[in-house]
Amino acid sequence: MTMSRLKIMTIFGTRPEAIKMAPVVLQLAKYPDMIEPVVAVTAQHREMLDQVLKLFAIKPDHDLDIMATGQTLFDITCRAMQGLNAVLAQEKPDMVLVHGDTTTTFAGALTAFYHQIAVGHVEAGLRTHNRYSPYPEEMNRKLTGSLTDLHFAPTGTAQANLLQEGVDPADIFVTGNTVIDALLATVDPQYRFTCPLLAGINYTDRKVILVTTHRRENLGEPMRHVYQALRDIVREFADVEVVFPVHRNPLVRDVVNSELGGLERVHLIDPLEYQPFANLLARSYLVLTDSGGIQEEAPALGKPVLVLRDTTERPEAIEAGTVKLIGTDRDRVYTETRLLLTGQAEYEQMANACNPYGDGCASRRIVQAILWRKGLSAGRPGSFCRE
Known about the structure:
This protein has helices at residues 15-28, 47-55, 73-91, 103-114, 137-146, 156-164, 178-186, 196-199, 221-236, 250-260, 274-283, 293-300, 315-320, 330-342, 344-351, 362-373; strands at 6-12, 35-41, 62-63, 95-99, 118-122, 150-153, 172-174, 207-212, 240-245, 266-269, 286-289, 305-307, 323-325. By secondary structure, the chain is an alpha/beta fold.
């Protein structure tokens, strides 16, 4: 008698989700006798999502293609749920896996709940405990958590947050973060940039500062203050080069161009695909960002991170010493950046701190946990534990 396979559907819609879910999709495919993987994408982001799908050779079974010009949170939520309703009705999976904190994540979890399908939440338990920072991500995480059956917490801190909220310990698995799986599979010391500008930078003799900004709460004057501080740094340090993949949001681009446009040794470029970005990160000296994911990726590569936010849902890196939360005040950004450029001891302390986010085996733990919970493997998988 042939055993029926578990049908596991992964749902994601943005580039960050795709990067972190790709290793899970590839891991699910390693168990063809036990698992039937199904991939559904909302394409909440279109072009950036497609880049990651191509890199990891993932072909979605369902593509809702919901992205529209000027889309609002209401638009994304409604279109994602309408599309996923039909997909779930057709596929009837045994479990849906969603990731992190996007609107697709919440919409996927809620739609699965309406179909009474079990939900697995990858990167569960991150919290700032401020519902509007970051917005809407913090509430997307909490609402998704309330709908989740299996919580795949990347760290012990995330696990503690879930326990504090009353989640059954038996439903929590500490896995490490899948972004480390993706990163370690992508960074290559022999990688050659196809972009002439990136290929022409001397990463040995220059101190390259990688900058990214996109958060809603930083739009306007907060971003302007950051860029003014960067301008001061570049003028003071002749060996510094800034590489800034500028977000496509016109509200970001307008301020970037007014403060940094035309400045010598400041390279304003379009957003990079994941492979060149990961390899640029590996060759940078330090990072200034308001991104969540980069707070996890950079420590795995020994790169100090100055976080341009007042709160973070990733306190582990702060505790480990790989990340410093500095906000957007011009003087503070200048002072903290200058310290890492001039203070070798301070730099080494951050660069050599232990990475708290993973060991490259998170996806394997997630799939093993699903198989164990469904009675298809003998033992509960071990937890990721920071050294």
